[in-house]
């Protein structure tokens, strides 16, 4: 069951993971023996983890919390670390940060207790992201560097990718764009080599943001569109909406404010726009700020017409229109 979870996570198969572990939970309904209860709770935690990426964090949070309780009662410590991780992810997406760090600390403490360095690396990544959220960038770097060292000690190539993301975040947040780019690029190269789609998606997203911050618009466009293709394939709802916002920012930088204004109602009206991102807060807040900026740049008639067109757009069709040429190029490069 652990191997199935890791395969789905590495490949970004969020819908597959949700359906797979949902079926496992259903298959064990009514079973009362301890072993079945433990497996069902672990499967429920894994289902909850993948549901988060699909925009179902409220439901996922409740499932993960129940799994934590069951596995705690059965003293299944390795399984409990994974259940904690599922709860951590859901709490983050829901903005429940006090609970987030409380669970992270339990997760790391338990990983050290059972002496599993791989699980320690797993927990340190979550902890480093929390420090990023608090803008404690030195502490975030320390945790990421510790995790990276441990991953390299045990020969865990997969485990070395997430700490590079945190190191990139710390540099990016402090305006060290070249340094951030180096970390994200290193993460991307490792992740492409081993097929770690979660890390590929995250690193291309932030390479796009770094390129945009540095004024490298063509490079930013390439990364943003590549990430949009992989994000849609993963079924990652929040980042699909977020990348549409990033594409609107890109169009603004290109000098196409009317097109940007047309896209932003799709972002603002989507429920996932209420979710937070690691470095920038809620998507909707950023989109509304950009829209205010565009309103000041455009004539009233042009701005109003762009909004009316945007409100008539279909999200899925717009995403296909934007990303399909890039998807076809990526498919043509496949062996």
What does this protein look like?
The chain is an all-alpha fold. It is built from 17 helices and 2 strands. It has a two-stranded antiparallel sheet. Helix 3 (34-53) runs parallel beside helix 5 and helix 8 (137-153) packs antiparallel against helix 9. The chain is globular and about 70 Å long. The two termini are 31 Å apart. Mean pLDDT is 90; it is low at 329-335.
Overall, the morphology is: globular
Strand fraction band? under 5%
Q: How many helical elements? A: 17
Please give the number of β-strands: 2
Helix-strand pattern: HHHHHHHHHHHHHHEEHHH
| Radius of gyration based on Cα positions | 21 Å
What is the arithmetic mean of pLDDT?
90
Major beta sheet summary: 2 strands, antiparallel
Kindly state the percentage of residues in helix: over 70%
Strand order of the largest sheet: 1-2
Structural class determined from secondary elements: mainly alpha
**Unreliable runs:** 329-335
Distance between the termini: 31 Å
In short:
With 335 residues, this protein is mainly alpha-helical. Helices cover 82% and strands 1% of the residues. α4 (57-73) packs antiparallel against α5 (77-93), α8 (137-153) packs antiparallel against α9 and α14 packs across α16 (300-311).
Annotation keywords:
single chain; mainly alpha; two-stranded antiparallel ribbon; 82% helix; globular; disordered C terminus
